[in-house]
Design goal:
single chain; alpha+beta; about 35% helix; Alpha-D-Glucose-1,6-Bisphosphate, Chain A, domain 4; about 150 residues; about 40% strand; 7-stranded antiparallel sheet
């Protein structure tokens, strides 16, 4: 199993971070994860436990097409996604820290294909780099978006 975690402090309350990550997932996911070439929500209405989506990603030249669903959602603290065949699990956890939010991104890959096992160390490093990039991208987008919204009101 490949597991990775990355955390970052965001200068916004957990409700705003949860809204960006979970409520506005369809609009924002490709913004913080540019490897996503296509995202299709398969379940109408707001994101909730059981909602499904299909994504096409291009990671380091490798194209993947997966269907995933929301398996846990606890506003404004947590949203968890899992691939339909339970190959991967992704968690976004928001914890209040003073006037900020600690966003923790976790990615768990259940198993590596046999042909990929010799490259496990490289895969772990790439997945960790990806996790760090995700939290930094989310932080930058949320703080920039909020700054622009505040600036337009004054």
């Amino acid at each position: 199993m490949v597991k990775t975690r990355a955390s970052i402090l965001i200068a916004q309350p957990p409700t705003r971070v949860f809204e960006f990550v979970a409520v506005d997932f369809a609009n924002n996911y490709r913004r913080w994860s540019p490897e996503v070439q296509q995202l299709t929500l398969l379940t109408p209405g707001p994101l909730r436990v059981g909602s499904q989506a299909r994504q096409v990603r291009l990671d380091q030249g490798r194209r993947t097409d997966t269907t995933f669903r929301v398996i846990e959602m606890s506003p404004p603290d947590l949203i968890v996604f899992a691939e339909s065949a339970r190959q991967f699990r992704i968690e976004y956890r928001m914890e209040p820290v003073a006037e900020q939010t600690r966003l923790t991104f976790a990615f768990d890959l259940a198993r590596l294909e046999l042909y990929m096992r010799p490259f496990e160390k490289l895969i772990r490093m790439a997945v960790q780099e990806g996790a760090e990039r995700v939290v930094h991208n989310i932080k930058g987008l949320i703080e920039r978006d909020f700054s622009q919204q505040s600036g337009s009101r004054t």
